[in-house]
Design brief:
4 copies of one chain form a homotetramer. Chain A is of the alpha/beta class and about 350 residues long. The first copy, chain A, has 2 domains: about 160 residues, 3-Layer(aba) Sandwich (Rossmann fold); about 160 residues, Dihydrodipicolinate Reductase, domain 2 (2-Layer Sandwich). Chain A is globular and about 60 Å long. The two termini of chain A are about 35 Å apart. The relative contact order of chain A is 0.15. Chains in contact: A-B, A-C, A-D, B-C, B-D, C-D. At the A-D interface, strand 8, strand 9, strand 10, strand 11 and strand 13 of A face strand 8, strand 9, strand 10, strand 11 and strand 13 of D.
Chain lengths: ~350, ~350, ~350, ~350
């Protein structure tokens, strides 16, 4: 039995980690931290967890890390850097925030607007897209969870880029995202009243921070600079990202490449050629569904990817990585079936 | 390992059973039946189940029941009667429909509009409200799952009626129900377009069939005739029933009685006095949350119960009963944490 | 052409007033105020109004009231008192907040937690439930808009109380309310993520402030003290209140009394006996639908009322009153058909 | 006062026409037809219309067209052809279905799977995209309403194609559509339970029938063959289409061209450069909001269009055309403000 702590447990990804770990046979939650909500119980903050026997929320510096094997850091962007640097060496870390997603300090500063304060650590962090970094993750001390949009699109595109199957200069990704991706912060445009009957694009024109990840990952993969066009849209459904990727390439070859790449993956499901995945069919699970369709225009292919942003896009991925880092079975605690309807 | 079959697997309660059994260590799905959809795969009918290795849907009479230990009958009302009668004796049955919920043939005919065709079996069926019928369920061959509304309200009221704590002549239950309770049948008023921004009462005035269950159960419990006033309302949220029960009695005594009655129950959670449960905090789980509040008017108590109609209100209850009938741990496959948000 | 100003125009009832006045032939919007959003345009704050030629948002004290005939005060509770006191005498006021709903200063202090600062004005304010106060409203300088829940329940109950048709000691009102009723304030439990799949009661046990209105109005009407039991619930649909009123009386007599009371009312529609109204059928309109059903238990009647809280429950009512106060046709700007689906 | 009849009044576009005409000063509804629901009242079929004094639903052949000036045909695809052919000559027709959208009989047969039975009429029909066909519509006897997706995308693209501002060989349109676009037909995937938490593409790969319209219209406009890539997605919000059009061209030039093209249009609103429109801000109205953004990749422009599919995308457009055909003010009955939130 391994001991874990969750930092930032009063947010949605923190709660999702608790949900998953409750069904995990090899992990014990040793400590839960929150900042403004320190002193409260998890039952106060998340009534759906009230049947669980959980430690109360404390301030981060009240935690004794002596017998903690691994920390999940589900903190607002910018707060993990100093924190991780100051943790005892024996503690492994899965960071769910953005602090260690980019390896280039200049890129980090460009997208996040401030210099990185732990650039040495930044160099050692392993990018946490499990299916493509498994061996490095097993031995890493610090794993950087990917952005939820970044995960979705990469599942659709990586095997196609690696296989040279698509035009690298013309990749357009249109995403439909549930509001849980924005977390629990209080913003007027995130009220129920504002979101429940509205569909709208945001961060249009290439301003979304996950572009930093795309640029770094895809360019490294292709061995040349790759820039994609990426536009997220908010839709009125709590969980789920649907990424519609408009590509130039041969659709059947793309389907074959994706099917082959993911043939042995427990969580990535490639649909029969021509079928379309829906977010409703992965809700609450760690699965990602991929659909590939040929357009009527020759040489065009549409790859659609659906996953649950809070699970496979964030906390599920984090647990999958933690399993690897702790020498546990990779799928432990993660095989729950999607909740539909 | 026990073998089970699910009859009526193309409906929502059938799919929910598959979801739960996939996380169960002691059950194997041997056969799945559907009527109009026989010949299809479960992946066709329920894409969220596509990663599971499931038998294809067949007609009921194509199933070999020789090595089936237990059947879940998730059939439209009226179809289980003859079917269960004709099953081999060794097969245990959990019926999720309404056919065996009422023990009085006259009451059955009154509420369902047709004579019961298996009245002998009807007498042997055990009413499947697990928490109140555990011992009889353990040894039953046939267990009748309760109505989802009937389960919700009974969790709120049974200990109060048994304890003589409330006025039996003045019980008013106002329910808010998710559309999944109506199943997958094609009805105009169940379209997304009609339901997504509408809140409306239905079966008003005492016409809802679950009243037959309330009458029979509460009268037996009280040792006198009890009739409650019960009105369900449709609200735009897939899963969940919130029952607001307006009662006359002492609120603190009611809270104490409910807290005591459920102290050792794994799935029934009594909230601190004065707190209100929400359906969003039990979604996807087998938990039922109960809240008790005193009104400003002396002698009035409001008991609110929240559960997931497809799980604790139907398929979760069915699995809990099956566990008992098969000598398995009662909570096996049922401890998943609610999915929030 | 009469000139109006809207104070608090950056909230939902302010925006709804703008929507309605845009279709009104006799009113011109002269000024719009907001506090924190002063300096912004309405297009910034409410993009759905961007095609209208509207004055920019200013601070209240920047408004020249010289040629303003009537002010709509859509301010947070507590702010109208001093403001209205200090307005020039020629300006009529429709207050959409709670400041003048209660005529008894002690009751005001009890429900709102602070002494009233304009108690003389409080005595002169006319309670704005148009259908029951028409003549007083015509000549009033200050009309106090009702609470949205208070309006809904009063449409269901006033003719029954006035007619002595129901038991005054046993009135139970269960309300299902859209989140727009809570306004645009930033609260965690009002985020889309928290509300979109949750149904939950609030202010349970007689703590909701609209009870002050019920007590005062119903007691005055009955000529004795009347206290009702009232519980609101949040449901995931932007607009709409459905009030289910559980009463003791003769259902057909109640139906006859309501039908007669509202026979000539343009906005109150009494459905045929036994039919149930839905919030989806009044959305965006000034209509209130009333349904009356007999229960299977003799002597019980269920009266259900549906209206749009932002329109008939608030801004529509306000405009209806303003029309009367300004000598304009009562229904002007208010006959728009509900938006369904 | 002109007399109109609505054929197919039991569908959503029929109900929307009634809603709009109720606020129109120059039209009287003379007859309403429905097929399976003939004999019912509109209040039975659409309770939100119950306050209106409307003719009962009849079979089409029961209508006396002698004093009918204009017919709105809101019929399932394929039924208008013979019907319009057989109407008296004096009756003008606005067809909301697909029967007359394509002028080429071969294209019609290709997309709709059957030969057109009124090919002579087909040649005379005027394509009803009001803003681009105003003069022809004024004098037409038969106007073919556009597809709702077709309208949305054309508002975004026509001035850009006409102005030679974008690469005609690389137009990608990703649409997010509310389920009302599918009408009131009973389909399993249109149930609330299936749609309320799902986002999914459909008719992927160039199979959607509105492509016939795009091909014909854009090719005519460009003077060469133009084929766009077009993928609609279902999102859980009743009304609204958001079209995200990924184009190659100069963003500022595109913004200028759109702003100029629509400068005098009462219903088409071009947002300031860089702003994004949302469907929630046009709900219930006849407005279309257009947003134009430059991508970080040089030479890429994103044009986003939002409108209400039942109103500007269908019934609002139909009424706008009817106004022109009957010599009435074009905006009469159509200036209602969007309903938000």
């Amino acid at each position: 039995m391994k001991n874990v702590a969750i930092l930032g447990a009063s947010g949605y990804t923190g709660a999702e980690l608790v949900r998953l770990i409750a069904g995990h046979s090899g992990l014990r939650i040793k400590a839960l931290s929150a900042d403004r909500k320190a002193g409260m119980t998890m039952a106060d903050v998340f009534p759906h967890l009230r049947h669980l026997n959980l430690p109360a929320l404390v301030k981060m510096d009240e935690i004794d890390f002596a017998d903690v094997d691994l920390v999940f850091a589900a903190l607002p962007h910018g707060l993990s850097q100093a924190l991780v640097r100051d943790l005892p060496d024996h503690v492994k870390v899965v960071d769910l925030g953005a602090d260690f997603r980019l390896s280039d300090p200049a890129e980090y500063e460009k997208w996040y607007g401030a210099a990185h304060v732990a650039t040495e650590l930044q160099q050692t962090a392993v990018y946490g897209l499990t299916e493509f970094n498994r061996e490095a993750i097993r031995t890493a001390r610090l794993v950087a969870g990917t952005g939820c949009n970044a995960a979705t699109v990469q599942f659709a595109l990586r095997p196609l880029i690696a296989g040279g199957l698509i035009d690298l200069d013309d990749i357009i990704c249109d995403l439909k995202c549930g509001p849980t991706g924005a977390g629990r912060a209080l913003k007027e445009n995130m009220l129920f009243t504002e979101r429940s009957t509205d569909v709208v694009g945001y961060a249009q024109g290439g301003k979304h921070r996950h572009l930093g990840e795309f640029d770094e990952q895809f360019s490294a993969l292709a061995g040349r600079k790759v820039e994609i066009q990426f536009t997220p849209h908010l839709v009125p459904s709590n969980r789920g990202i649907l990424a519609s990727c408009y590509l130039k390439g041969d659709a059947e070859a793309c389907h074959a490449a994706l099917a082959e790449a993911y043939a042995d993956e427990p969580f990535i499901v490639v649909l029969p050629f021509g079928e379309a995945p829906g977010t409703g069919h992965v809700t609450g699970s760690n699965f990602c569904h991929l659909g590939i369709t040929a357009d009527r225009i020759s040489g065009r292919v549409l790859v659609t990817a659906a996953l649950d942003n809070l699970c496979k896009g964030s906390s599920g991925q984090a647990l999958q990585n933690a399993n690897l880092m702790l020498g546990l079975p990779e799928t432990e605690g993660l095989m729950m079936v999607p909740v539909f309807p």
